[in-house]
Amino acid sequence: MLKSALLSSVDAARERILQHRRHLHLHPEPSFQETRTGAYVAEVLRSLNVTFTSGWCRDRGAAGIVAEIKGKDPGLRRIALRADMDALPIQEVDRPHASSVPGWMHACGHDAHTACLLGAIEALQSNREHWSGTVQFIFQPGEETLPGGASILVKEGALHSDAPIAGPGLTRGEQVDGIVGQHVYPQLDAGKVGFRSGPYMAAADELRIRIMGKGGHAALPHLTVDPIVTAAHVISALQTVVSRNCNPVEPSVLTFGKIRGGFARNVIPDEVVLDGTLRTYDEPTAQTLRAAITRIAESTAAAHGARAEVDLAIGYPPVINAPEWTESCRQRAIELLGEDRVVELPLRMTGEDFSFYQKAVPGCFYRLGTGGDGPGCRSGLHTSDFDINEDALTTGAAMMAWLALTAS
Length: 408
Prior knowledge:
Layout: H1 2-12, H2 14-26, H3 35-47, E1 51-56, E2 64-70, E3 78-84, H4 110-126, E4 134-140, H5 149-156, H6 163-166, E5 178-189, E6 193-195, E7 198-201, E8 203-212, E9 216-217, H7 227-238, H8 240-245, E10 253-261, E11 267-268, E12 271-280, H9 283-303, E13 307-316, E14 319-321, H10 323-337, E15 342-344, H11 354-358, E16 363-371, H12 392-406
Parallel strand pairs: 3-4, 3-5, 5-16, 6-15
Antiparallel strand pairs: 1-2, 2-4, 6-16, 7-14, 8-12, 8-13, 9-11, 10-12
């Protein structure tokens, strides 16, 4: 009865869910600047007569929202569902439904996450006489940028039972029993979902190395200390950090994705800046690699007469799905979708601040298949032509609603 009622409600709301996603995709906002997105979510919640508080992460200029719906016997159980709302600094390819904000797009599917959660809320609200407990909804800013909106929301009390009423910093109730998060996955067909128990995604540190030399004329290199040549040697030397400092059975990655230095072809600059990321699964390994990065960068720069300053910001913890909670979510997904549409996920070296919630309460972070034959529907996350098969949105909304009521 409950399953069929939720599925019918989600199917009836299909066009509204699609419109939520398309509106949000058209109007992406940077991390901790999601004021327009928050206002849109608030408007939808008001239209559904759902209780919520706004102003979460306000000190960072964001507009996070925590909402709730009470079913029968509201104190029986309390489960939280989370969607992130921020976009990425990527220029979307030219297409009819592309972002209207130059240089910004929803290249990680956060528009879909928010739309699915709004769809789940509509289904749960319209069927609240059929289920028991309380469901809490977190619309989170700033997933893409340290310190991560999740870390702030946890500190502000978003996982506490009275958060939707009291607001940020004023909560006093018990914490929720568990939390569920969902993320799009273009390599998996729309209509399918994926789970992995235990360690799933890596911890993600942010790394900046300043190489400081002495600039001068490109034709007179003997009068300079070339930071560009030094930076090249530093990058090459750091390629051994993982291979020679890490246990081979421990997954780790060090990548530099950005180099800045110089302003003319015939001028040797004074400084080069390298930006990168370190991904690990356990803290002892992370500590070993952080120390090695600093040691190797400083000594390599010194060998070339330059100086290196290493700034390593410790980032998100690893995503570790609580085994019993995740297995329950997996079994409930099979009940909803069928066994052939629920798959096992591989380890990933990408990071997610959902891990901050999991350090506080049992959590399951699963994947929603969004792959299809349309343009961009198999493209990787964080790429300019990324898109989703919108057929996945109703699956995502139904999954979130169903897990909120049945996972244990």
